[in-house]
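Q: What does the assembly look like in three dimensions?
Context provided by user:
Components: two
Sequences:
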Amino acid sequence: MCCTAFHAAFVAGAGEALVGSTPSNEPVRSVVPARQGDELKIVVYVRIMPWTEEEIHFTPDGRGVDPGLLAFELGDGDLSAIEAALQVIEGHDGEVVLVTVGDQKADAPLRLGLAMGAHRAIRVDASAPLADALFAASLLSPVVAEEQPQLVLCGARSLDAMTDETGGALAAFLGWPCAAVASRLAVANGRAIIRRKLGNGVAEVVELATPGVVTVQAGSYQPRHPSLKALKNADNAPVDARQCERPPASAVIRRIYRPTTENTAQMLDGEFGDVITDVANLFAGRVP
Amino acid sequence: MTTLVIAEHRQRVIRPVSFELISATRELEGEVVVLVIGPDAVRLGAQLRLDGVDKVIAVPGAEADYESDVYLAVAEQVVREEHPDLVLAGHTADGLGFAPGLAARLGAGFASDVFRLRLDDGALVATRGLFRGSVHADLEFPQRETVVVLVRPGAFAGAAEPASVPLVEAGVQLPASRARHRELIDRSEEEVDLDEADTVLAVGGCVSDRESLARLERLAKTLGAAVATTRPLVEAGLMPSARLIGQSGQRVAPAIYLAMGVSGAAQHLAGIRSSGTIIAVNSDPDAQIFTIADYGVVADALAVADALDAWFARAQDQRKDSP
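A: Here is the predicted structure of the complete assembly.
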């Protein structure tokens, strides 16, 4: 089912039919009271990950990566989360606010999000550590609390597998519920219906009270391409940079290194039959 | 060091990652406590009385097999009673829903997608990949009493022998869930959408006609994979543009991406780079796809497809024959 249809049909009141055929014990609408008005505010946490297709160089202390060659960009998870937010607020009086943690290099990707249709961008000014997923959550929780959104979205299963964790931790800091790895979501009357992707073709439908946090599977919402005009307008859009105190690290890199097997494909060779068995074994537990 | 393992289960069956979490504790000294949450916790907990485990705690009060905030609340209470130094959960859709929150609530150290755990002079060291695995990082957790670690599924062997292990049924106060389980949808038998697929089989330039396409589609069906493609096949009218990955096409992030005869144009590579494991089969050893693949096979993709399909058919026959 296409995501727009999921959303439209859900809002039209057909959510029951969409979430499956099993009758629920109680009507959904009684679970969470309807909110007043039709306003909807969604905060999207974008990670803006450091990335390079080139060879990575380490800092002399062996504990970090030389930032010189790194580009900062929206990951697939970030893009899916922004697109999901834009689709969910369609038809509402609402706004989508992007938040991130980073230095000025994060402003360009934030502006790409603004060109896609997000309304505002807030950047907590701090260089984010490479392997500390709780750092951003800790810094962002007061910012999000102040915004008072109904939903916070962030990417899941993104390239560096770090944003999912930030979403769960952010929810806990805020005292809000969390649904992880969503492939579809729709919001109406102060509740969110989420389809979580569990793997092997199995999905779970979850009803989340708002405010709440949802992590959105990378690739599950195909991001819109902003027009040239929108890109140009966003070029000068303001990014609200905030200062903050750094929280203590939840993990520290003791050593960073290239694995003994380089990041090139491990070539499977030998007798044809053995190669087939090797490939088949990579699917262990996944084939019905 | 005391380790608390939070077991994962679904549809009344223990998930393989639970056994792997128990294995992950082997290089660590000290006690291992396994926590099982859910209405069926006592029966499932009995299956986790395994060698290497010192105690199983079953919390059967919960209404659903899994609800993120129920797991979070129960795990937090158990941690506060048992005082583990380390808490292990799977780096899975379920683990991601509660374990980062547990770390946040406890003020614990935290690491995710970890594939190696060891003690160095009594201190925990966890290893994970960064930059899509091209570098590894050893992480440490100074000044943290407790550390929560999400372990990558498949990183540890899962087998252990049954053993005589005490099972304790614990009455833990459960919160009203604000992330309510409504239902499970099992579409494992149906063709799934490209953006929801766990396994994607991409068909590339090795296919020039419907007959060869059918051979790859048959393998996709066997694997439960969604079929994706590259631009030449769309232009040849063999595949619809909805199945296109790359320029003006989709981005996908399945757990396994099997590229059959895909050469690997830059746009295509950009569209698949968030995938879990990339397996590439191509007769050209210099194909660009091998620069991003985790596993590569230099061979005719159609021949490999037929042989793989036959392999899985044989495996299924053998399962049927065995009692």
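Follow-up: Helices of chain A lie at 3-18, 76-89, 107-116, 133-147, 163-174, 228-235, 272-281.
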